[in-house]
Amino acid sequence: MKIENESPAVPVDDGALEPVPGETQPDADDKAQLQIENGALVAVVDGVEETVQLPRVAANAKVKVWVVPTEYRDNGLFVAVTLDGSHEEVPACDPAATSYLGEIELDADDKARLKTLKDAKRAEINAACEATIAAMVAAYPEHEVQSWPQQVKEAEALAANKKAVVPLLASIAEARSIPVDKLASVVLAKMGAFAAMSGERIGRRHALEKMIDDAVFEEDVADVVWEGSRP
User: For the region Disordered, what residue ranges are annotated (predicted)?
Assistant: First the structure.
């Protein structure tokens, strides 16, 4: 993650052995020039203070700072914010024209962390809901499931008019050697049961989603589980 990305930056392979352009071990005075206040980096370079707003991060990150030409960055600073395990970025300008100021830790933002947890929990609940509904139709061939809306349409038409033309139900009934009106009754009964069961699961997902939205603490989010999924 980089700040002010109007010019490209060069990603660094975590396992690379090449030295980072312009990066030398900063002395104690250099380290004292960097601090974070109210979510912003405050850097003092040659007595001039520059402030760069930092992103809110859901996990602790490190902030590395370089002095770079103003043609590359208007404020003369290249700031890279890197989460643990992600690739670092460095200035893509001439390394000889850069000067590494140092590194400072950026603490995780509580709101950003809570949002990340909520997003993950929503995905978990959605997947659980989808899985339970999918299990209800798993025993049927896909093309048969795709025919259900037409079966229901014809069954409803036959219930309203005994002389209605119902080619799909008529073919199924003939193959099964049962009256078409009996098949229509079975179709409507099964669709009613399926609608009730799937509706219950959809409603449960809605209720859990609201619990996630209303959660104030991380523990509240963790407590939201789909029935049967708690360890």
Answer: 1-28
